Amino acid sequence: MAMDIFKITGPVRLDGTVTIGNSKNAALPIMAATILAGGKNTLLGLPNLSDISIMCKLLEDMGCKTSADNGTISIDSAAIDKPFGDYETVRKMRAGICVLGPLLARCGKAEVSMPGGCAIGYRPVDIHLRGLQELGAKIELKNGYIVAHANGGLKGANIFLGGPFGSSVLATANIMSAAVLAKGKTIIESAACEPEVTDLANCLVKMGAKISGIGSPQLTIHGVKNLNPVEYAIIPDRIEAGTFMAAAVITKGKLKLKNCRLDHLMAVVDKLRSMNVAVDETQDGCEVSFNGHIQPTDITTLPYPGFPTDLQAQFMACLCLARGNSVITEKIFPDRFMHVAELSRMAANLRKEGPHVIISGVEKLIAAPVMASDLRASAALVVAALAAHGETIINRVYHIDRGYEKIEQKFNAVGAKIERQSI
Ligand code: UD1
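^ Those are the sequences you sent over. The predicted structure of the assembly is below.
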């Protein structure tokens, strides 16, 4: 794999217009759900990211035909001859687990690798398995694979999907996708309410599924016999939008974001406004502008509509330069603090205490060589580097590339100085 690095020269002030891409995290479970609708599905506006190609590969391996053209991906799922998710593919991307529910519903059996470890901490799949078992699946673990059978088909049930850290996004996606073809009625309690889950539900409804309570923690699903292929457009990426918002704040700049849904970012906008950042809604997005001193604030990550864990690191980067002390509490992934050590290398003053980080604002950040560790932590390093004095070198940029399409080009177009080098 090409080991690209970023050389980022700061500080800069960002000013201009950025078009946000569509959501990878919405796209992946929707791609998996095309397994349910045998035939040619067309998904519109997908980002060009490695995770999307990995999902295409996973679907091809089981018999689907996929083709990609400039953001449009067609997935022909007429024939699924091998309901199997290989370790080599699923270990690269946790969202590979999303094929489990659809495969089981369509084929009555599935064998999918347990997802691999991950830099943001241990991420079990017990809620996924419990939900499928309640729909009548028999599940065994064999040689690192989840082997599931539903002899006689899945049957609707009342299922509580909460876990120790609240609802689970991908487990809700998996169980909902399985229940749409199960016999009878399913009620999912403590369903995740994230916009990506809503997008999947809307896509399933377009395929002919009967789901009510969409967007709420209680989903009611009446199973249908079969689903029809669809053409469906994915929602904008709220996390990419939030990352650019953080960049506007830390550079005391002004960014107009197009293709951005502010209604998916209420907790973030509320936090920004409490930090005296101006966020104004525009026709297809918003304008974020900031001038002055960053106000310290406390942030607690929570399931949607709370503050997203996927923006925790980027906002920590901003608060490193606040006038005063802030506290960030991580309630979704309590070990998701890989960026703390790297931001400290850039002269931030941070102290981790369990799932909390206490941030004492400093006058300035200073460039340093740092290491990207996971997707969002790496995005935080880019945000910090835009404001840091000197040339920051970020290693292992492939982590960032997993979730942000052409990030350096987008930033450079509004005033950043980011150079990509292959080493
Ligand atoms: C999705 C997102 C990820 C985001 C996360 C939380 C994708 C591809 N990924 O991940 O970017 O950070 O939602 O918004 O959409 N848990 C269990 N058992 C399970 C499943 C989860 O204990 O079976 C725990 C997790 O360890 C975590 C919490 O539940 O503490 C929430 O995780 P979950 O919502 O499942 O995250 P993902 O869906 O994997």
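The pocket of uridine-diphosphate-N-acetylglucosamine is lined by residues 25, 28, 94-95, 123-128, 163-165, 168-171, 192, 196, 309-310, 332-333 (CB under 6 Å). The mean pLDDT is 96.

Shout if you want it in another format.
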